[in-house]
Amino acid sequence: MYVIASVLHDEEWVRADGKPHGNIDIAIAVEHLCLAATEQGLATCWVCNFDAVLCKELFGLPASEEPAVIIPLGYAADSLRPKNRKAMEEIVKIDN
User: Fold this and answer.
1) Separation between Cα atoms, residue 48 and residue 45, nearest integer Å
2) 93, pLDDT greater than 90
């Protein structure tokens, strides 16, 4: 299953200085969705690297709606390939 979270630009809240908050609201909502799914034993992943124009066309989204993120939901595979990540010491600096 996939969830497509989109911003409704004509309905998003705009701060007094003119800053629109649709992308911030999407981030908050999607993270809550991911945490709730994990609590239920499901796996999720943020997918932001997709063709938003094509997605909009495929799902017939109106001009004022922008697909922001796709969230696949499902059960994790029994065996996952090892991740090649940097050690925390390489990316975090703590000053005392």
Assistant:
1) 10
2) no
